[in-house]
Amino acid sequence: MIYEGKSLTVNLLQDGIAELVFDAQGSVNKFDQQTVADLDAATQVLAANADVKGVLVRSAKSTFIVGADITEFTGLFDMPDEEVLAWVGKTSQVFDRFEDLPFPTIAAVNGFALGGGCEMTLACDFRVADTTASIGLPEVKLGLMPGFGGTVRLPRLIGADNALEWMTTGRDRKAAKALAEGAVDAVVAPEKLTEAAMSMLKDAIAGDFDWQARRAEKKAPLQLNQNEAMMSFSTAKAMVFAQAGKHYPAPHMMVETISKAAGLDRDGALKLENQGFAKLAKTDAAKAQVGIFLADQLVKSKGKKQAKAAKKTIKQTAVLGAGIMGGGIAYQSAVKGTPVIMKDINQAALDLGLKEAATILGKGMQRGKVNAATMASTLNNIVPTLEYSAIKDVDLVIEAVVENPKVKGIVLAETEQHVSDDTIICSNTSTISINHLAKSLKKPERFCGMHFFNPVHKMPLVEIIRGEKTSEDTISAVVAATLKMGKTPIVVNDCPGFLVNRVLFPYFAGFSRLIMDGADFVAVDKVMEKIFGWPMGPAFLLDVVGMDTADHASSVMSDGIPERMQKIANDPVTLLYKANRLGQKNAKGFYNFSLDKRGRPAKVAAPEAYELFAPHCAEKRDFDKDEIIARVMIPMANEAIRCLEEGIVASAAEADMALLYGLGFPPFKGGIFRYIETMGLANFVALADKYADLGPVYQISDGVREMAASNKSYFALSL
Q1: Which one of 23, 26, 143, 602 has the largest count of C-beta atoms within 10 Å of its C-beta?
Q2: How far apart are CA 372 and CA 604, in angstroms?
């Protein structure tokens, strides 16, 4: 052994071949600061050793290198601008020094080679991948761009167009596609990877492969004439703007950087990359997207830990209530391999539930994501029934009947009589108190809420609601079942609306008052979609939710939290509901819905809605975009803070992920708590105080005032 670090070692084998092996202490290899230091030290040892004729780089783990250590980013990115630039510049130079070794180098790639791991392979002269490999530069998903030479080496290896597509989408490539695009030189079976890499390296040492010419090409300007460059980068700019829009600066920066660096050599191009990376690292979007990554890791880790503690395995599920929601839940269980019994009291509902599952599968087949075998096995896993006797042996029952506490209570009590003593019973309710529903059961310890979001197959979140008497064994088993269904579980405590709907309805209340004060709902939607970044503005979202559902839920919230959520007199939502304008479900709400000439869904602002509101609203006037955002977002932020203060949700990170996965909170803002903290707690307090006279939903808690005064972070409380 000629070098031994904490994350990698170098052995000198026969024929002058050195083997550099990444083998970090954890389960995967990452480019943390320790590994970068080890690589630099190893490179210096290799450069000084006259016996070395070539280097083989490989991983001792089942995957190559998964990328940088994201946990280090928050601290690094908080440094002053010049220090961030110095750090990325110093780190990228480590890869340069490795690339400049005076002999050929080859990477043997297995499993994931992402981000810095991909950039390590690019610093080598040759790359051999096995069939398990996935290679890519996903930094855009963190609001960043490659910082260790990726924007320089990849375009020179596979062409600017291909490289930009890799980097601006962040999608990795399987080995065969990477080979076809020129990112790797060969693909072999896993058991032949080291042998193949060794053989290619020996050929390079022998002069059969011109490794020096390859290296020179990577270090030279891009081989594009002026017209080619203009066409390539103009097209890329247009595509990036169409796909990423204005809220995500990273893909735009990549195009700009590669365009400016096209005529430069490696060192000049790397300086531009360093500057672009450092600039992106200080953006709110990067902080938000890195925050999402870390929050997602926390949620996943917590879910796995809870699932591991489960004492009961869910081998068969039952869904009670076979409408659109029940059919969606049944599909989700069945498609992930858990047989499900779908029960209802009438055949028409069962037919609707089966149709829902078949429709989802049919659309999947049209897109090429579902094959005939998957469709058949999924539908065979769903057994419809009208009889309670069919559910006697199931492990988990998910009640998904109408959102009415009396009806749900009756169904839950009946269910308990027909299942075994250890069957877990859940209610898919969006607002009704789990503690209240638990009163219908003799064994409330085996009961909890399991709130799915519509459409079930698309929405990743499941809120698991713990009641006062719910056992931890029940929670663990339901978390495990949720993960098996391919969903993200977040456990919350019981309260009206739980977490997601509790923070959503103050947002709707802020919107209603804005309309009553003379705002145009179309203008509000435009601001909240185009400027704030929601996938739907509040009027459009209410149309999708349904005015009947929204009005009912607001009544539940009003009853449960009367001090802040009293129903608003002549609320536009209630006016629409009473006029039977239910939204998309009957094609009329705030908007009128139809199909255009091509059969695509279309919506136009409904004159009928304006007429309905006019007698109850102030004269129409324009509102500044900042006021619109403040008046709808302050109530949501306030209620999220109260949920954290009351222990409804365990951490700010989980609250952020719940709103991201359950409501589509704009990812570039990072979640509700990241949004508040990006604004600055003191600034948020001042903004909320400005609108405090509008009512209780705008009035902040003493807790947030104290947090702002002491300059604390809600994310520090999450640790």
Answers
A1: 143
A2: 39
Residues 164, 169, 171, 176, CA torsion sign: negative
In a shared domain, residues 519 and 484: no
Q: For residues 493 and 496, give the distance between their C-alpha atoms in angstroms, rounded to a whole number.
A: 10
402 is in an annotated binding site: yes
Contact (CB, 8 A) for 209 and 203: yes
Catalytic residues: 451
Residue range 439-463: mean pLDDT, rounded: 96
Q: What are the tokens at 546?
A: 């349904």
| Joined tokens for residue 99 | 């690339």
pLDDT tens-digit map of 279-296? 999 999 999 999 999 999
Is residue 399 marked as binding?
A: no
**Inter-helix orientation angle 284-308/472-484, to 10°:** 120
Q: Three-class SS of residue 55? A: strand
Within a domain: 291: no
Q: Which residue has the tokens 């520090």?
A: 716
564 neighbors 503 (Cβ within 8 angstroms): no
The answer on 667 and 537 residing in a single domain is yes
- The verdict on residue 415 lying in a domain is yes
Reduced to 3 states, what is the DSSP secondary structure of residue 10? strand
Q: Residue 305 domain-assigned?
A: no
Angle between helices 681-690 and 672-679 (to 10 degrees): 90
Task: Clarify whether residues 557 and 461 are in a common domain.
Answer: no
- Is 500 part of any known ligand binding site? no
661 is in an annotated binding site: yes
Q: Show the domain range for 386.
A: 313-494
Q: Is 340 part of any known ligand binding site?
A: no
What is the average per-residue pLDDT within 24-39?
95
Residues 484, 507: one domain?
A: no
What are the tokens at 345?
Answer: 């009291």
Q: What is the DSSP letter of 320?
A: E
The CATH number for 72's domain is: 3.90.226.10
Answer yes or no: do 416 and 524 share one domain: no
Q: Is 51 annotated as a binding residue?
A: no
Residue 224 pLDDT greater than 80, yes or no: no
What is d(CA 353, CA 400) in angstroms, rounded to the nearest whole number?
11
- Among candidate residues 494, 521, 552, the one where a domain is terminated: 494
Q: Which tens digit of pLDDT belongs to each residue from 667-712?
A: 999 999 999 999 999 999 999 999 999 999 999 999 999 999 999 9
Spatial contact of 492 and 649, defined as CB atoms under 8 Å apart? yes
Token pair 């456990």 is at which residue? 491
Query: What is the tens place of the pLDDT at every residue in 501-519?
Result: 999 999 999 999 999 999 9
CA distance 609 to 228: 53
Question: What strand order describes the sheet that includes 340-343?
Answer: 382-385, 340-343, 317-320, 396-399, 424-427, 447-452, 461-466, 488-493
Residue 642 to residue 709: CA distance in whole angstroms = 17
CA angle 518, 520, 524 (to 5 degrees): 115
Of 500, 492, 570, nearest to 541 by C-alpha is: 500
Q: Is 363 annotated as a binding residue?
A: no
The Cα 325–Cα 352 span in angstroms is: 10
- What is the number of domains present in the chain? 3
264 plus 393 within the same structural domain: no
674 occurs within a structural domain? yes
Contact 633, 675 (CB under 8 A): yes
CATH label of the domain that carries residue 579: 1.10.1040.50
Helix 625-645 vs helix 500-516: crossing angle, to nearest 10: 150
227 annotated among ligand-binding-site residues: no
Helix (H) / strand (E) containing 89: helix 81-99
Cα angle 431, 433, 437 (rounded to 5 degrees) comes to 120
Task: Indicate if 479 and 509 belong to the same structural domain.
Answer: no
**Are 9 and 24 contacting, i.e. CB atoms less than 8 angstroms apart?**
no
